[in-house]
Structure formats: structure tokens, C-alpha cells
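Bug report (template v2)

What were you trying to do?
Predict the complex of my protein with adenosine-5'-diphosphate.

What happened?
Run completed; filing so the output is reviewed.

Input:
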Amino acid sequence: MNPVWVRTLSFIGLVALGTLVVRGLSDWTTAFGFAAAALVLRYLRDAIHLRNLSRWSRQELGATLPRSSGAWEELYAQLYHRGRARQREHAELTEALTSFRGAAQALPDGVVTINALNQIVWCNPQAEQHLNLRLAEDIGQNLANLVRAPDFLAYLSRGEWDKPVQLRVRHPDQRTERVLSLQLVAYGDAQKLLLSRDITRFEKLETTRRDFVANVSHELKTPLTVLAGFLETISESAVTVEQRTQYMALMREQAARMQRLVDDLLTLSALEATSAPRSDTIDTTALFERIAGTARQLSNGTHAIVFDIEPGLALLGSEVELTSAFTNLVTNAIRYTPEHGRIEVRWHRLADGSATLAVADDGIGIPSQHLPRLTERFYRVDRGRSRQSGGTGLGLAIVKHVLTRHQGTLTIDSEVGKGSVFTATLPARRIVGDVDTTDPGRALSGETLTAL
Ligand code: ADP
């Protein structure tokens, strides 16, 4: 039997028995009268305890217990221990939830939890940003009303989400667009987790890679077709000695073109393969002497080329890379400047310790709309002219890459019909001004090299 009943019945029994003993064993009426009175008193006491219990239960967990004794004390003790256990559980759950939300907020990916009706239960700030949601306002809203892209709606209603769906979304500023990968994961009782990841950069890289492969194939295809054509002609039809000589010259030209392309591709891939350039101490006077030699050979006396080189400057960096970048700028100036044009190459140190190489020509110039894209791989203003002058379309991409690796910059000023100035700047920490130039013949100056 319930201990409360046992106690109550024993209490009534004891009061009645006590009365019978005091008043004589035959006075049953008085005995039961006392027992009834004792029961009423007990009822009143319990009513007071009940009121106290009711007030206490409305207070916060852990509030001081009302004073009590006997069965009530036991009851309060039990309630107190239960309350404490609940309080501990509550604290543990709160901590777990806080740390889970903290982790979810720190995730680089967006997370949205939705219920069986696709209503938003919770989301992290990344998801707010990706999907343009506001948790405070959108909680309880149907996700399908907020992310309305048809591809996503079809995905949401599909019911099987083993693969993610890609979505192009416009940023609220309407200027930028980003590519998101959205993946739904079912869990619990028909609840779903929506994971969003910004893959704009990967998409761009993938597009660049695809374009690059397409460009390389295209660049190689033309000389290969020409070579194959001539080979077929020579082997299948009778050709004169002159024709043969002419075809061979054209074939050599195409082979050289492919060679240049492969060389530039290998240079680019070598640049990408290493994270930092070597740190040679480059004697720039000697470096520009070699570049002047190459320029002279290429121009073959058809341009006036002036080198104005500040003596005694050494450059810290990769000699191979910087030679390639500087040579590219000088040979471009020659290739895009008609005969009798003038090219000035000036290397000098600035007041802040940095140094600049300015390559100026009075050649064909570049329309301003092309300037921002010139350093892109295979970007040319005039494809025909570039090919005709032996260009691969990779020169300025290499220059930019090399300068960036040396913490340098490239600026381009140009005017159509008037000429261009390409300026490469290298930071002060890469310039050392202690190269021995006691041999005056080693310093290149405007006067000594005007007549290249
Ligand atoms: P390319 O091998 O075609 O010369 P680059 O990357 O070196 O490739 O140059 C990209 C384009 O920039 C060239 O095709 C050309 O149109 C333009 N360009 C580069 N240098 C000059 C210059 N000095 N004058 C005029 N145009 C230039």
C-alpha cells in the first residue's frame, strides 16, 4: 500500500487507540471524535504545505525549500534532489547546444535545419549570407518561399538528395553573382539539413582550366595543320626544288611557333610549381647587357634602342625569371613598333628605395579597353599581328606572374598610334645598391647603346 495511506491510517489508529486507553476501552465515540479532529488538523497542515509547495514550484529551479517536517520533509528532499538533477541536465544540455551552435556558426559552410513541412527551424550566419535569409524574421517560414530558384525547388521536392544541386545566385547588390552548391540531408523524423557551400572560386578555376586547355589546343592545332598539309603535299605530289625549299621554310616557321608556345607553357608551369622564387643576387648591369644583345638581334638594326641603366644596382630574386620577364617587355616593344621606331629602356632606383624598369616605345599603342586584360593568358589585341610577329599570347602573363612572385607590380600606359610604356616596379627590399661598377665599360647608358 502507498506509504502515505499507511501513515495516515496508522495515525488515525494511534489517536483512536490512545483515546481508548485514556478514556476507557468502551468510549469508542470519543476516540473516533479525537481521531476525526486530529485528521482535520492534519488536513489543515497539509493544506498549508500544499500552498507552500505550489508557491515553491513556481519559483526558479534551486530556490530555497519551504520549512517542513515528517513526510513533507521527505517529499521536499526528493523534489529538491530531482530539481538539482534536472538543473544539472539542463546546464549540460545548454552547454552542448551552445557549443554545437558555436561550431555551426564557425563553419565555413551554411547550415539550415528545416522540419517535415520545409519550415526553417534554425540557420547559421553563412547560410543567411548565401541564401539571403534573416533567421530572426524567417524562422518558421517555408524555405521554398524564400529560395525560389526553380532548380532548387525541383531538388527540394525530389525526395532523394544523394548529389548536391548547383545554384547561381545574385548578391543583393545585383552586381556580383555567386555559385552555390546545395545539398539536402535527411535526419530524425522527416527533418532535413540544408548545407550550402560557396563554390564560385572553384567554378572560376574550372572555367579558367577549361579555357586554358581549349586555348592551348587551338594554338597548337593551327601550326600542326599547316605542317601536316605541307608534309602531305611534299610526299604525295611532285614539287619543284624551289617549292620544296619554300615549304620547308614555312614548316620550320610553324615548328618554331610550336616550340615557342611549349617553352612559354613550360615557363608558366615552372612558375606555378614553386611557391617562392630563388633569391639570387643579380647584377642588373650584366642582365641588361644580355637583354640589349637579344633586342639588337631581334630588331636587326631597324629601331633606335636606348638603354639608360643606373649602375651599381643589384636585384634579389630569380635571375632566370626576371631575365624572362624583362626580355619579354623589351622584345614586345620591338615587335609592336614599326621600323625606324624608338624604344627606350630605363632602369633606375626611386627615392623610396624601390626600382623601376620602364620600357617605352612609339609603336602602334593599345586601345584603352584592352589594357585591363592584357596580362590574361592568350589575350591579344590583334591576333594576326601577334602571330605574325611570333607571339604566343603568354608573354605578359609570364611578366605579371614573375613580378607578383617578386612582390612587384606592372603598370601599362598606352595610346593608340603614339606608343606604350610598360613599367615594372620592384620593392626596396629586393634592391641592393652595392654592385662594384669600377669598370666604366660595364655600365650601360643612353650614349653607349643608342646605336644598337
Ligand atoms: P604576344 O605573344 O601576343 O605578344 P603578350 O602577352 O606578350 O602576347 O602580349 C599580349 C598582347 O598585348 C599582344 O598580343 C599585343 O596585342 C599587346 N602588346 C604587348 N606589348 C605591346 C606593346 N609594346 N605595344 C603594343 N601592344 C602590345
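What did the reviewer find?
Residues 328, 332-333, 336, 361, 363-364, 366, 374, 380-382, 386, 391-397, 420 surround adenosine-5'-diphosphate (CB under 6 Å). Residues 97 and 103 are 10 Å apart (CA to CA).
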